[in-house]
Amino acid sequence: MNIDQLVQTGRVHRCVYQDPEIFKLELEKIFSATWIYVGHESQVSQAGDYFCTNIASQPVVMARHTDNKIRVLYNRCAHRGAKVVNCESGHSESFKCCYHGWEYSNDGNLIAVPQPRGYREDAVRPGDPAYAMKPVPRCDNYRGFVFASLSSRVPSLEKFLGPITKSFDDLIDRAPDGEIEVAGGVAKHLYIGNWKLIFENLCDGLHPNCVHKSSIEAAQQQDDSVFSDGAGEIGVSQMRQNGVPWDFWENEVGLWAYPYGHSFLGDYHNDKNLSVAKNNPSFGKYYTALEKAKGKIAAEKILKVNRWNTNIFPTISFMSQFRQLRVIRPLSVNKTEVLGYCFRLKGAPDEMFHDTIRFANITNAVASPVLTDDLETYLRIREGLKTKGNDWVSTGRGIGRDIKEEDGGWRAENGLSELHIRNMFNVWLSYLKT
Amino acid sequence: MAAHKILSIRNIEEFLFMEAQLLDNRQFQNWLALFSKTGWYWVPISTEQDSPYDHVSIIYDDRKLLETRIRRLNNINIHAENPPTRTSRIVGNVVLNSIEEDSGTYEVCSKLQLVEFRGERQRIFAGQIIHYLSAENNKIFIEGKRINLVNAEGLMEGLTIIF
């Protein structure tokens, strides 16, 4: 079937989720060809710090050198090809290959080779770029969020992100000191299903009342007087909040989509009904700190931004109000790794960070009473799409009723629209066709 | 009060084996009843994790959250447990680590080997369990339970079972 035919008005062909050949094309035409989130600068705050990840299934290392610059290097020895940096993150003055001891500085330059006489004299010399751990073609950051591209032919990061940068601003500007840092470890999970499903699901307002019914009802039935050290306060109220009626999603929640496939669900929570803020003394303390640092008017303006999940296609989804970020890494057409990170707002009280952790345990932990029902749903999608009885998957909810916005984006008719899915597939198709 | 005179290692072993049986039999409400009113249940994301408050966990439930988690396991709409998971576990190598004289809390260490089966998938979990137990009127209560999985940091699919 022609690629063009896979994405049609209001539907996509089932093979976009399950054909290994399509997945190969995605690695080449999307993951190797656009901006991919690598990490946050706070993960390599000191010279010598490094953080390993991968882009398009290729190992890379984000490293800060003594020049204070952050680089993203292919994590491979120039000699015999072994992966050089093996730990997930850490600190090292240089990178040394375990195989024959070739040693690189943190900017990737070759600095030492044991027994150099054995190589042809003109061939291997420290400093020779041909024998460096090569930097990936493009690396840039938006206010500390580091992105890289395996292709040099990408637009500027600023253009790629466009108006969705406001979501990053929302996350950062909420910090009384104006800075954020990754903290509190990483919550990992694996799901059996295609990587695009999670981007669809995270801005899908229709699913919580079905998928999460068990945790919503269990939380609704919870006796409030039972002892909690904070975990239950945050967890139970968040699960209850997933159960707001469909009318609420339809009338109160907004959904926006942008060029390059990005989207966000907004207006859902304001800080009055936020599970981590409502009647919460730590939020009160935080508000005082924010107001003190920024002034009353600025503080109120900052907290007026109400964004739930922001999807940056094709690698991350984050929650600025809740200080959470998920990295989505496809392992194969039917296997996806998700890494959840938390951010600490500098200048905010410690109790607020504890709430961030509690929220992460409920939304991103592999044993979360909420997440596990999403993962089961992905599995059933994989099973269902094996049938040949119907080749098409519907994406048509709200179609034809999207509103063009002045900033170049679109606003969905309401929070139950599938605008973000259609937008993602339009962009997906344009990548695959190039 | 000399707390260490109340529970013998045999009493403790019997309690742990009974607890394991409740979980394998999916008698979750009965299992919950073993916890004290302020009991907690913790599966850290690394065996070295020293606090559940400033670091994410696989599970960290206070009494309130644990009640909700258990209630959900019995909710008819729980997709992740339809069909339900079956487990079979062995708890052994039971060691009484220490007795906190003031509070009368017993710190008990044991090993867990657990096979889980659901749908097409069978998984094996292993790790160390640390129980914090108290005894009152011949009844044992779980004040806290920590499970250090050998693959705590590892990548895994959704987890609905109770260790």
Features:
heterodimer, A: 434 residues, alpha+beta, nine-stranded antiparallel beta sheet, 22 strands, B: 163 residues, 3 helices
SSE topology sketch:
The complex is a heterodimer of chains A (434) and B (163).
Chain A: E1 7-8, E2 11-13, H1 20-31, E3 36-40, E4 49-55, E5 58-64, E6 70-74, E7 89-91, E8 94-96, E9 103-105, E10 110-112, E11 138-142, E12 145-149, H2 157-161, H3 165-173, E13 180-192, H4 196-202, H5 208-211, H6 213-220, H7 231-241, H8 246-252, E14 254-257, E15 263-266, H9 281-294, H10 296-303, E16 307-312, E17 316-319, E18 324-332, E19 335-345, H11 350-363, H12 371-384, E20 392-394, E21 403-404, E22 410-411, H13 419-433
Antiparallel strand pairs in A: 1-2, 2-20, 3-12, 4-5, 4-7, 5-6, 8-9, 9-10, 11-12, 13-19, 14-15, 14-22, 15-16, 16-17, 17-18, 18-19, 21-22
Helix pairs in contact in A: 1-13, 6-7, 7-11, 9-10
Chain B: H1 9-24, H2 28-32, E1 35-44, E2 57-61, H3 63-73, E3 86-100, E4 105-118, E5 121-136, E6 139-149
What does this structure look like?
The complex is a heterodimer of chains A (434) and B (163). With 434 residues, chain A is of the alpha+beta class. Chain A is 29% helix and 25% strand. In chain A, the strands form five sheets. Chain A has a nine-stranded antiparallel sheet, sandwiched between helices. A four-stranded antiparallel sheet of chain A has the order 6-5-4-7, with no helix packed on it. Chain A has a three-stranded antiparallel sheet with strand order 1-2-20, covered by helices on one side. Chain B is an alpha+beta fold and 163 residues long. Chain B starts with 8 loop residues before the first helix and ends in a 14-residue tail after the last strand. The model of chain B has no long low-confidence stretch (mean pLDDT 95). In chain B, strands 2-1-6-5-4-3 form a six-stranded mixed sheet. At the A-B interface, strand 13, helix 6, helix 7, strand 19 and helix 11 of A face strand 1, strand 2 and helix 3 of B.
